[in-house]
Specification:
The protein is mainly beta. The protein is built from one helix and ten strands; from the N terminus they run ββαββββββββ. It has one domain: Sandwich (Immunoglobulin-like). β8 and β9 form a beta hairpin.
């Protein structure tokens, strides 16, 4: 990565705390045995050494789209939200690579409730196909990056 650049490298869904970029049928909940009550969205950010060392601020905009329901944006938090932060060479950012000017990575994990997915006609029950969009915008709009997740199914 260029030392003067930053970007979102990936956005994906996973089982809550699972570390696997997929949603299977994790821990059951009381209302739907065998079904997950929540899942995680993971946003991976990378910043070059100069950007990370400059400690500039940024916003990540997360948007969740219900593909099953005519590609409708789920407009309510936590499914659509802005996350503010600062580039850094300190934790929770992690240095990666070798040499005198490493890149830095940050993983942001947000837990979302399955019950928060709006269910409306004509799709009155799960499963639903969802996908995420994430946009990184630095202060002053000098760095902009947009990533789309692979579609995934909530059952």
């Amino acid at each position: 990565m260029n030392a003067n650049d930053a970007r979102i490298t990936r956005v994906y869904a996973q089982e809550t705390g699972g570390g696997i970029a997929a949603i299977e049928n994790p821990a059951p909940n009381a209302t739907q045995p065998g079904k997950a009550s929540q899942f995680d969205v993971v946003i991976e950010l990378d910043a070059g050494g100069i950007v990370a060392g400059g400690s500039g601020t940024y916003t990540v905009q997360l948007i969740t789209v219900d593909v099953t329901n005519d590609c409708t944006v789920i407009p309510t938090a936590p499914f659509t939200q802005n996350i503010s932060g600062s580039f850094s060479t300190a934790a929770p950012w992690v240095a990666v690579g070798t040499g005198g000017n490493p890149d830095y990575e940050l993983l942001t994990v947000i837990t979302l409730p399955v019950a928060g997915i709006p269910i409306s006609a004509p799709f009155l029950s799960l499963p639903h196909i969802l996908k995420f969009y994430a946009a990184l915008i630095s202060a002053g709009n000098q760095l902009v990056s947009v990533v789309e997740s692979e579609p995934f199914v909530i059952v």
